[in-house]
Fold this protein.
Amino acid sequence: MRIGVGVPLFERDRQAVVINDAGRAFIEEARLSVLYFDRAVQSARAVAQNSETILNIGRSPDTDPFLISTLLSIRLPLFPLLKVELSSQFSCDLVHDVLAGSMDLAIATEPPLSPMLSATKIAQTPFYITMCKDDETAVYQHLSMAALNGREWVLFERRVHPALYDSIIRVAQERRVTPAQIHHVMTAEEAFPFIARGRCLAFLAKSGALRVARETMTVRPLMEESLLLRTYIAARADNKSKIASEFLRTFVKKLSHYNTVKQLQLPISA
């Protein structure tokens, strides 16, 4: 069957019609074309009616609050009625939505690489190990993987971020470090009862560590070069939206005016 594209999109036999690889590729791009057309119509109507223009931006659940506050402070003179709508998803899901065209930009930690994705690194931080204040490791200002040997760990479920999870396990194996037990959680808050028992050490991002930390707890940075958390702002590589491009440039430029490393460091409790 041909639909004006010059190649068969379906395979037909006497019993059924089945879409082929060319057809699947056509449908994928056709969906994007329809989506972009609908959004173009909405943008044109918003400008004509002097109403709000919406920019859809996603973020990882543990995105640093400093990055979010900076993002929300942006004002574009050429688009005075611009409204930012934020949503929170895991990094892999964010990338999927950006590539599918349902999201304009995404702030993601270690996003999966794709030639269809344009990503700019905006932050780099370590994991933070959260523990009770009287834990034996709390005497150190920072920790190495070796200091965690033989202890109970709290890690995010692998499906939250497969690449990061595998990196933790790989580095532990390379350092010949073995946890006594691994407890898995979906959110930083779920790590609290494990830490409170006094035996567990939780691997958390900065914002998660801040949310979980209590008077009886403290945090220490994990100083492992191969386990740094790199945060990117990503867009679809062929996204030609002037609003998205201007917003991204302004955001990156504004971050450059701060001492980003200093701003993103987590104060260490005594």
Observations:
- The first strand starts at residue 10 and ends at 12.
